[in-house]
Amino acid sequence: MIEGKHFPKIGLVLVIGLYLFFGLSHLGQFVTADENKWLYERIPNYWEAIHDHKWKKTFINDKPGVSIALMGLPAIKLYPDSREFCKEGEDRIIQCDTANAEHFLIAFRLPLILINGALLILLFFVLGRLINPWVALWSAALIGLSPPLMGISQIVNPDAFLWSFGSVATFAFFLTLQTGEKKWSVLSGLLLGMALLSKYTALILYPFFFGVLVLGFLLSENKESSRLDFIRNLKLWCLLGVVALVTTCLFLPAFLVSPGYFIGKYLFSIGQKGLLMTLGLLPLIIVLGDTFLFRSRGMLFFKQKQVYLRDTMTSVVFVFGLMLVTTLFVRRIFSEWEIFRVLPFDTKELSSAIKYGVELNFFEAWLLEWSPLAFSLTPAVLLGVAFLCVFAWKHRQEKLALGVVTSAIFVFLYLGILVVTDVFTTIRYSIILYPFVGFLAAMGFWYLSERINFKGKYFWITGLILSTSCASLFLIKPFYLNYTSDLLPKKDILSDAWGYGGYEAAMYLNSLPDAKNLTVWADYYGVCEFFVGKCLTAYTYDGTNIKLDYYVFTRRGRIRYWSRYTNWERTSGLTAYKYYDDKNPAWELSIDNRPLNQVRVVKNSEEGGSLQK
Fold first, then answer.
1. Tens digits of per-residue pLDDT, 24-56?
2. CA 445 to CA 528: how far, in whole Å?
3. Residue 591 φ then ψ, to 5°
4. Cα–Cα dist 50/44, whole Å
5. Rounded (to 5) percent helix, strand, coil in the chain
6. What digits encode the pLDDT tens for the residues 321-370?
7. Which H or E run contains 521?
8. How would you label 388-398 residue by residue, b for 16+ Cβ within 10 Å and e otherwise?
9. pLDDT over 70 for what percent of the chain?
10. So what's the pLDDT on residue 292?
11. Which among 8, 151, 171, 471 counts the fewest CB atoms within 10 Å?
């Protein structure tokens, strides 16, 4: 009997408490890229369209981000004039209600934190039924206390809900296959619909579910009963799709008004290559793994020997862990490799690497796609995955849970689609993968617990997961989305500040004498919303009437500004390029102690001041 029968539920309360403690921290003290479009335009536009029955206008963005708009209703009620909260004047000076900025941001972000917390609780009960309460607890802890997931949950952006709705929908579908109960299919469909309302990327889940259904049939021991189960599950899969479609159209009536737009912009948004890979990669992985790892000479489907299939499925899990280790090892040891040294982490397309003198082969592209994920996993997750891989290697003949195998396959599938569709991933682009890796890590701890025998082992494992996860959060707090494993050299970064540090820079500027009469130019978001003086981010403005006192610099802003800085100097007299490498800034924040990831305040001086040229 598993010790501490009721402890997992008690542990869940602790996990949710820690999640809220870290998640509510700093909640109103930063602004990230594109949030202004959601806060001041898209969310108000959605509710205005609903109010005026202008259904076509509910398509506020091609993400589509409607789930974010739905959760923004309480904030819209509190701030009906949210469009007026921050406005740019004709002189390009941004005027914000800085006195209420924190309350305004919290109003929009608090529902995101609370809804994702509720989804963690739902995840716990789904996994408790699917596997057992301890795996459910450990999964909730590893997922809920993941810094990247914590960080994205604080941001008014569709990715904030993509990971949560998408992952719980998937595990609910696993439970549908296990129980054959319609209620789990309906739940999965509702959650998938919400994921689709968040971001079109969730579309990959529906054909993936079909692949899981087929794989479940292939792994079944009793072929006669499994055929009946397959037909039943196929009907449940169709039910799930109908519920997801109805949910999507209910909250996004623009699809009903313009169904052609739905097909053109939504169904094919991940591209034909992506759809083909979703349907085709699963059997390909099975055949290749069976052929090369277990030497069955590619005869799996001809021989119909289930042991080969089990071996192959176990090998997929092992290769998943091996790929993570390979990525960590190669990038750490060969940090000066050209693809790491020259290619920026935020390159949009893989093919654009040629601009930097790098021509990627498939292995290099594959390695680059794995890097953001591998180096943003906490030690607790990496340890759990390591245990899982050791188990998969030593116990190949044992049947792994279907959810374990397919979660590992999903990571391969998703990153493979990014390669073939020429998308260079970032932490934000791959955010949907983190819950699945967290679940795999939890299963690794479970397989470990089955092979050790001492009193209190479940409590010790729980303590290990909670303590190490909290340590990871505490060390990067409050800049969670910038979490990077220390395995990555400090000279490298996975993501830049992305708006973090702007509040702290504004607080420094606000502390200066006569701050209200100062004029500041910031090269990125997150400063003007909190600064009490005059603030602008425009490259073109009337330089004869606006004299800058201070600059606020970030890495991302430098990239954007540097592309045409001579043009900005000619049109506005903006000479920020002279100050980016100032050795003695007035104020500086280095996020995660990474030199590239700095936010700096530099005083403008026509004589050059402290500039070290």
1. 999 999 999 889 999 999 999 999 999 999 999
2. 46
3. -75, 125
4. 10
5. 65, 5, 30
6. 889 999 999 888 887 888 887 777 777 788 888 878 788 888 888 888 99
7. strand 519-522
8. bbbbbeeebee
9. 88
10. 43
11. 471
Q: Backbone phi, then psi, for 393, in 5-degree steps?
A: -75, -40
Interior/surface letters 57-70, b for 16+ CB within 10 angstroms, e for the rest: bbbbbebbbbbbbb
d(CA 445, CA 458): 9
79 Cβ contact partners less than 8 Å away, ≥ 6 residues apart: 85, 104, 107
pLDDT at 146: 98
Continuous H helices in 395-501: 402-420, 433-450, 457-476
Distance CA 588, CA 168 (A): 40
Is a pLDDT exceeding 90 seen at residue 435?
Answer: yes
Radius of gyration of the chain (CA): 25
Structure tokens at 612: 């070290």
> In angstroms, what CA-CA distances link 202 with 113, 197, 270?
20, 9, 9
How many residues are listed for the chain in this entry?
Answer: 613
| Residue in the structure block whose two tokens are 């004029």 | 519
Nearest to 149 by CA among 377, 467, 443: 377
d(CA 371, CA 375): 6
Q: Are 364 and 439 in contact (CB under 8 A)?
A: no
The answer to whether the CB of 66 falls within 8 A of the CB of 252 is: yes
Backbone angles phi, psi at 246, to 5 degrees: -65, -45
Two tokens, residue 17: 């408490």
Residue corresponding to tokens 């609370």: 114
CB contact at 8 A, 82 and 42: no
Confidence of residue 471 (pLDDT cuts 50, 70, 90): very high
- 3-class DSSP state of 14: helix
> Which of helix, strand or coil describes residue 498?
coil
